[in-house]
Amino acid sequence: MQYFLEVEKQRAICGDPGIPRDGSRLNPDGSDASDPRMFEEGESVIFSCNGESFALHGTSFITCLADGTWSAPRPRCINPPVVEGQRATCDDPGIPIGGSRLNPDGSNSSYPRMFEIGESVNYTCEGKYSILEGTSYITCLADGAWSELPPRCINLQVVDLKRATCIYPGIPKGRSRLYPVGSNAVRPLVFQMGESVIFTCSAESFALHGASFITCLADGTWSAPRPRCINPPV
């Protein structure tokens, strides 16, 4: 018990991120989080805007990281621009060949249309087009643009003829690298497209900063930079 108390004292602290004007701040469980305070590493807050006339511009969910900073800047609540008496909209982002587009609730979203600010869509790949390259979840922003470019579905039957490979991502000090299935992968290897690795920190006094799960993509690059293991500031 004493060991865990000592580790707890070393957890990073993030300053109060504030609350956007015309917005509110909640804890992940939905309870109110508007009281000003400091936040410990790993704590998260959710932002939303008050009233349908405002749209959230930025990330709604942010987390206090091991280096004492937030995972994203505080978002803003803005009154969307009006075009010809109507709220700005985003063009139909399209559907990748071999893929499908869904609403956040899982319902079909394939019918071509304009999207209002704040609306989101989720992409998946089907059948032989089994690898999604890019971001699966995109949102219509207040400036009428999408948060990310639509993804692509990679045809494995074509790519397998000349399958992409990714170079060994390395193992920084203080961390082990594992396959998702749990087998050890610490030896230098070449990884094929679609293969993934999971990073963990080897000591409880270190915290992982960055993506813990990365995948070899069709262009021979990893889906995210290699993370770091850092000793949280006292």
Q: Total domains, how many? A: 3
For the CA atoms, what is the radius of gyration? 21 Å
- Give the strand tally: 23
What does the overall shape look like?
flat
The class by helix and strand makeup works out as mainly beta
Spatial separation of the terminal alpha carbons: 19 Å
Percentage of helical residues? under 10%
Fourth-level CATH superfamily of the largest domain: Complement Module, domain 1
CATH architecture call of the largest domain = Ribbon
Q: Enumerate the strands of the largest sheet in spatial order, edge to edge or round the barrel.
A: 2-4-6
Beta-strand portion reads 25-35%
Low-confidence stretches: 1-9
Figure out the total of helices: 2
CATH topology of the largest domain: Complement Module, domain 1
Average pLDDT over all residues? 75
What series of H and E elements makes up the topology? HEEEEEEEEEEEEEEEEHEEEEEEE
Classified by CATH, the class of the largest domain is Mainly Beta
